[in-house]
Amino acid sequence: MLQLTAARASAAGPPASIRRLVDICPALPVTLLDRPPADRERWCPGDALAARAESLVAAEAARIEAAHGTAPRPHVAASRLLHHYLWSLCLLTAGPWYLDGRAARIAPSALWIEESTGDLALLADLPDDGPHGPDGLRTTVAAHAGPVLGAFQPYVRRGPHALWGMVTDDLVSALWYLGRILGEEDRAVTAASVLLPGGTPPFSGAAAFRRLPGTEGRRHWTRTRQGCCLYYAVRPDEACTTCPRTPDDERVRRLES
User: Fold this and answer.
1) Is there a cis peptide before residue 131, judged by omega within 30 degrees of 0?
2) Per residue in 53-64, pLDDT tens?
């Protein structure tokens, strides 16, 4: 059975967990703020994404072209930006649940994205009533993610099932990443499997981890994404390890290299 540490009944609990996340997770580009950003031209709150989606996607396309030397198609840029936002949201929401037993309740107005860089900022004065159990965590993530999907759907060219598959993948991936950072991969796999066992709409599937036989008796955790984050469209030779396009022998090679 999954064991989670009981959260302390303190208003500073969720922000303390998030500060720890920011400290230990190098892939989480989030600045903690005590007030909203003053520059509203550069920064966009999560509850205004629909009005700014076109310019945000254009800025993401420019970043991809500058980094990789090729201009992505608009739906590719939109998918990459949406994945970035969702993965960060999932880690910020579910990470405290994994660390301390209580999810962070993040309103869209509390999470901001900087247009030119894609960096995020979070208002750290969060409510201390985040849920303890898997049902509450799923509800909290879905409440924030639903409007975000609606804002990006015209640009990513995917239907609701595929979009919720992306949320499912990013929620699993965020917990898995945190577990590996902490040297607790088995515990993180268990946590993700408890959170997403399947049959929990609007999330469109299960965590569905499986053991992948490696060399010399080694075994590796792996799963196959329900949806594609389109990284392969940016770097054709580097599809994600969990991409449906990546066969098991290539997964083993990467995991053991």
Assistant:
1) no
2) 999 999 999 999
9-44 per-residue burial string, b: 16 or more CB within 10 A, e: under 16: eeeebbbebbeebbeebeebebeeeeeebeeeeebb
Instruction: Tell me the one-letter amino acid at 98.
Output: Y
The answer to whether the predicted template modeling score (pTM) of the entire model surpasses 0.85 is yes
Question: Distance between CA atoms of 162 and 69, rounded to whole angstroms?
Answer: 28
Cis peptide before 202, with omega less than 30 degrees from 0?
A: yes
Neighbours of 209 (CB within 10 A): 17
Strands 43-45 and 111-114: antiparallel
- Helix extents (H) in the chain: 13-24, 49-68, 74-100, 134-156, 160-181, 185-195, 231-234, 248-256
Q: Which token pair is 52? A: 């700014």
